Task: structure prediction
Amino acid sequence: MLISETSHANTLLNIRGQTPLLCAIESGSTSTATLLMEQDHLSLTCKDNMGSSVFHYATEQCNDIVLSRAIALLKRLSSSASRITALQRLIERNANGKTPFVIAIEKGSLKCVKYILSSKWLHRSVGIEDFINADSIKTAIDKD
Result:
């Protein structure tokens, strides 16, 4: 219903600045989240009022399926500006000072860590040092 009403369902926001996609991830609805991402690839560029993106939400929920699909969909963004924005979302800190990679480490989600580190396309676009840095190493040590 939502998708048939508008092709840009991810421009709809709740009071926390969450799009339907972010709400779907937060509620654990993997199939809905995947459908929303597939329908509107620009949803990968959205973030909420706390600066958390689809990548932050996926790692917070330890949802490796949504994370891997989001990373795969990065390649399909039609404009290079959109692709750069979405890639920025993958490495930027939210209001809590955490990147999606650090969240994945904190949550102990090895599958999420693996998807971030194993994407060859991603590492041609973003330097590995954007993921493996002092913060992520400290978090890994603190979490054993």
Summary: The longest helix spans residues 80-91. The radius of gyration is 14 Å. The domain at 2-142 is CATH 1.25.40.20 (Serine Threonine Protein Phosphatase 5, Tetratricopeptide repeat). DSSP finds ten helices and no strands in the chain.
